[in-house]
Amino acid sequence: MKYDVFGVGNALVDIQAQVSDSLLAETGFDKGIMTLVDDAQQQAVLAKLQGLPLNRCAGGSAANTIVGVADFGGKAAYVGKVAADEVGEFFLKDMREMGVTIEVKPADVGQTGTCGILISEDAQRTMLTNLGVSSTLTEADIDENELKQSKYVYIEGYLLTGDTTKAAAYKAIELAKKHGIKVAFTASDPFLVNMLKDEIWNLIKGPVDLLFCNEEEAKSLTGKNDPIECAAEIHRHAENVAMTLGPNGSIIMHGGEAIAIEGVSVAAIDTTGAGDMYAGGLLYGITNGLSWKQAGHLASHAAARIVSQLGARIQTRFTPEEVQKLIG
Questions:
Q1: Is the pTM of this model over 0.85?
Q2: Whole-angstrom Cα distance, residue 130 to residue 38?
Q3: Which of 109, 203, 240, 299 has CB 3.0 to 4.6 Å from 210, enough for a Cys bridge?
Q4: How many domains does the structure of the chain reveal?
């Protein structure tokens, strides 16, 4: 196979800054959650960050995961829409430098999407997302010849919020099923689960082979409180489930059994991208011959490394020797 994982998502450039609680309060946005903002709102927030140290990288949930796969040495491709502007050029260059194949034609008009990530003193992230042209991704952007050369197709839940992006997601899923390729789907956000619960359940009961979710999303989906019960309920319908539990590690459901993955104790600085990197580690593992437990172990360490630094990118990559040691 040409690719281990073929990802589809909203192409956004992450702009991260550590901010005081008072500056965060000035923005008027709710702390610790993701809010969709328009062009003017985003410009106003970015103006408040003038003079602060900023960290910029190609982002968006699925893009972070795909970079995670590449980080470990996996072969990855990504589909997402950027504009023909400086921010869009930065996105493409950044992804390609990480070793990710991305060949989507940039949009002629509009601006590339951005995500302002405001990290408060308690390591919480408040995300302000301006989708820009990422919301114009269509099913025509999904290349069947490329997709069919992958082991897994990875879809981010955020795509379900727009008509054309949803069509692109379903097209990718349909082509994956046509070519016998596994489908992984991430619930993306508790607000999304609450808004689209029935649709997400239809995907879990239907084409999804591996569901990624966190504890809060699993509770919203199932209406249950106990994490093991939540994971087991989802596993009744989905072949595989990977549910993260923050510092308490994660639970993987595979083959009818619950595999407990321990958490890795670190001082959390920034939780941005922890779930995305967990998914990247797990997908790399299961497409490169590791057992589910080994892959989960790798994913847990990858997520821990992310939260102990600023930004959604691993600053110190895992060496092949480290990977070997971790999977033991």
A1: yes
A2: 6
A3: 240
A4: 1
